[in-house]
Amino acid sequence: MSPAQTAPATNRLLASLPRNDRQRLLAGCESVELGFGEILAEPNERLRHVYFPTDSFISLTTAIDGRETLEVGLVGNEGMLGIPLVLGMDVSPLHAMVQGAGPALRMDAAPFQRELGRCSALDRALKRYLYVFVCQLAQTSVCTRFHVVEARLARWLLMTQDRAHSDQFHLTHEFMAYMLGVRRVGVTKAASSLQRRRLISYTRGDITVLDRSGLEAASCGCYKTDKASYTRLMG
Amino acid sequence: MSPAQTAPATNRLLASLPRNDRQRLLAGCESVELGFGEILAEPNERLRHVYFPTDSFISLTTAIDGRETLEVGLVGNEGMLGIPLVLGMDVSPLHAMVQGAGPALRMDAAPFQRELGRCSALDRALKRYLYVFVCQLAQTSVCTRFHVVEARLARWLLMTQDRAHSDQFHLTHEFMAYMLGVRRVGVTKAASSLQRRRLISYTRGDITVLDRSGLEAASCGCYKTDKASYTRLMG
DNA sequence: CATCATCAGTTCGCTAACGAACATAACCAG
DNA sequence: CTGGTTATGTTCGTTAGCGAACTGATGATG
Description:
Distance between the termini of chain A: 31 Å
Mean pLDDT of chain A: 95
Number of strands of chain A: 12
Structural class of chain A: alpha+beta
Radius of gyration of chain A: 18 Å
Shape of chain A: globular
Largest sheet of chain A: 4 strands, antiparallel
Order of helices and strands of chain A: HHEEEEEEEEEHHHEHHEEHH
Oligomer: homodimer
């Protein structure tokens, strides 16, 4: 098993901007290395930075009643962490935690907001991204309500694989349970079923996607729906 | 039983704008009467108008697999239908259906977008509203995942009452089941429990809230969370 | 007034997921 | 190699909600 696809270590949102704008933005960014489990935002706290993942990705979750948790969004190199700033708000409504360790570009909130006001290409791109984000959030709500754990897990693995730019990554059942808002036992059951079906394999947190199209078939339609809305809108 | 609270027949979003801006906007609006069940937007179709409910309210839903449905947002006189236009997109990702019949102000999409570009107070107000909307959408996801039908129904009744500006309104179990994404039977069970507890009463779709604070206690914390984020951000 | 449609209540068997607890198994550090 | 920690597997009894079907009641309509 080779480490599969290589990651383009750029942020696609930034890459889509006109050269001048992009370079000015990059000049205002610093490169940082995000570590697994690092908390980048907490609900009702100020957002001090925005992050453009290049080869890392970040999980957005909501907690409730102290115990229960659910992932409501995932930010990889197709996006940005810090969406509220696009709306002129500097407080995060969500938890943001690093799920895939790796490099990202970081910019302070204040200069970022100045750039937003100045650079209409950036503003347009981020509005578009926010729109897609909201679509996917709505989709996730319904999915979470109606689809069984195995299908939801399959979808989640595909979304993760997309952002990891690799067919293998390290995540435990415990962690996935947290993201999907189910018991660890529920993930174990679903995952071992997917493994029996030779769609994935794993040992002690090392997950490999063996059969991507099989996994798509095992997932609910929500994965394809999300992907379609992304490509339609972000090209 | 008196018809309870009287409705302020204004749209609060518009009311919050500076006099000049407000009057220019109102000049561009026409008054319309929305009928129950009327469809104002369909997924992947163009938004031809925005609506500012004055004494009506609108349900935003997502469907999945053709059958299953879930309400993901509710727009009353505190808001506006047509949020994608704020992001420069003219396609609705959601179904929008009139849940509470009554008057609203309507504006064509094109002049609305011109106003958005011109009037920064409007732009700011709508961004703020969108932010609140996203917060509530995330909250709804988790709520839908973790809370039992009876608590979710209680929450939903409170949200509806807020937008109906009255302690009574007309909606069948069937309809509520559709909004909550559960079977009609599930709503019947939950509603009759709330009725036994003297929190509400109903016959053939005529619902009366008898004990609002009791209903708040019966609901999950999500109602208060939503309300808090609304008042904190929109004043 | 008779009929029909709508709305609400109830039942039955079933399933996905739950909470709790315990059982392996792999890896890690001393 | 040993004991501790982490990751996964399994079991047991319970529960909320499901699909399907049927019953009763209230209003509206002809």
